[in-house]
Amino acid sequence: MFTPGSKLFLGLTGFVLAVSVIYVAVVNNSIGGAVALLSVATGTALLAGLTLFNRDGEVAVGDVAAPAGAEPLTSSMWPLVATVGFVGVVAGLLTHPIVFFLGLIALLASGTEWLIQSWSEGASSDKVYNASIRGRMLHPLEFPVLALVGLGVIIVAFSRVMLAVSRDAGAIIFIVAGAAVLFVGSIFALKPSLKKTLVVGICVASAVGVAASGIAAASNGLRADLVEAKEEQHFSHKECGEEVSEHFDHLAEGTISLRSNAVATIELRDGKLTARELGVAKVTQTITFPRSNSATIIFRNKDEKEARLTAFLGTKAVQDGVVEEVLDCTQMIGKDHEQALTFKIAKSSRASDKPYTLTVPGLEGQSIEIMVP
Amino acid sequence: MSTKIRRIVAGAFGLAATAFLAGCAKDAPQDTWQPKGSNAKIIDDLQQPVFAIAGVIGVIVTCAVVYCIIKFRDRGQAIPEQTHGKPALEIGMTILPALILAGVGVFTFRTVFDLSKTSDTQMVVNVTGQQWWWEYDYPAQPEMGITAPIITSGQMIIPVGTKVLLRETSRDVIHSYWIPALNGKRDAVPGRVHTLRLDADKPGIYAGQCTEFCGLSHANMRMETVALSKEDFAAWVANQLADAKSPAEKTLAKEGEGVFLNQCARCHQVNGLKKADGSPAIAAPDENVWAGAAPNLTHLMSRNTFAGAAFDLLSKKCRADVWGATSETVGKKYLAGVTEECLNQTDLRRWLRNAPAMKPMYADPAKLTSTNGKYRGMPNLGLTEDDIDKLVAYLSTLK
After folding, report:
1. What kind and span of H or E run contains B42?
2. Residue of A nearest to B139 (CA)
3. Which of A120, A360, B21, B97 is buried most deeply by CB count within 10 Å?
4. A295 vs chain B: nearest CA distance in angstroms?
């Protein structure tokens, strides 16, 4: 009564229904998740009905329909993958969403492959023809996915290598690898008569080599300076004082792309700090800054000496009774350079004992007050 | 004329008359065809001829289509001889619209540049949109009598005949500021500051509406610009610069101040309000509201509206009196604020009782996971009727 296809879909329907019950009972009793799972169950139930109705599409096979039992079916790995996927889905429900999604992907992929393979093997008595219709159905899916996965592995592996070796070695490896790709690619292009097996062999060996190097590099860990930067948080804190910061001021940008939308431009010229607000022609010593809203100002240095702009944005309690100043700043920039500084002040000036200000460390007596309404 | 044709003609006439009359609204406060300021006039000077040209072209095209439909309708005749191409006509029909559009384009560009002029600005107002109200802050501008920043909401007050520059931004999503009688619309975009110029020829109240869909209560995000004479504006500024005064002891309003401190001061700032220990009460809407702001209520009763200008603080009669005032008297009537007799207690009490029931907002604590528990709009505070009585008494003192 039941065809192989309908058995698959009925099984899937039952499985998704069971998953729905487990999901609602154990993981999350949200309506959204239950609706999504029940929608899948409805879809698979419909497909089961369809496959039952058309007897797995045997009628559509047409003039090359296979006599029953003409060819033995080939062995398939997909039941195994489907089992792994199923286990992943169930384990993921109880452990971690990533496991669930990986299991789901394995289950969907194996289901699709298994379904199409079973269907194509019964399409005719001609194995070549069967393989061709399988390819026609699945290659548009398989090739891009495989290419994506392969490329992903190579990129991740290569990036691990670059993060593990020293900066100088990284540059050399990059040049050598690029030159090698160019050289081998040129050979392939100039010698189209090269044996296919040789081309495939070189490509596979290279890919395996990169992947192996990546695994080796990943197990070796990051290079020393990156480990140090991570431990000392070089990339997450700013040093807003007078001195040049070893890390924050490294390669300060000489220009900016936010100039079209700054609330004010702060200029340092002849040792004096002045402000010009958007839409206001005159120069001032006070700017109005939006409350509780990120906005950008521009710092322009017209003096010979390098300088940074530091914003005092109030105080915050770090422990009981311990209060520290909240500062933000630009990098140290040279003459005729500009830097944007984007920050947010959540509370009005009334909330701060000390006015919010913009200053240049090392420059005495010059300050722009930030008024926050 | 047969009965059937007569019916069709009558129906068509009725439809056309309805469409025509629908465009005629008496005293429509958001009518783009009634400019009340120089910027709106610049737009009007462009739109009038453009609409006239478009109207003439529309009539010509409609007549041609109707003529063709009637003249060449199917009467069972043979299909006429088919020809291809009429170069002179095709070139003419391409060049003519192109010339018309080029002409319109030249004047449009001139208008755009005229409207973007800011060099002769006389006053600046920072306008910040958030779900679903507008905040106006006036930076200190001593030449305008504004010696310290002023902050208000719902209604923006400007002096008449003054070139005011709005610096617009948003705290959450994109909004759009539009007072049709005074200028075109301009988007308020988070992280960006856009400028818009306004000025009003005469004192009056000019209505507007957020014109960029911004979520659940977009339709309730209204705004009004009130133009006052320079003397009246100076009086308004003087009042806004003052802190709120604490009500007299042992009054209902004083008890209301306590309720306000407990329930409202977390988000709403009232300048001059002090806590029980004597320290200033500083609101922290950034800790409670998704946008990071809530209206400053220091001079709530000096404005005519609340809740994003969606509701009136004035009773119907008093509102009609202010809105119907002449340009000579509107300033005095507006500056009178909301008196005890004029207070729209019904809506204010309903709002305090359950704000989200009056204006849809994302204020249900059970559904605030996407905003880390922060409200978008005002929540239902679950106030008792006793608390509401006290709060109304206190809010009425915030002149």
Report:
1. helix B38-71
2. A288
3. A360
4. 6
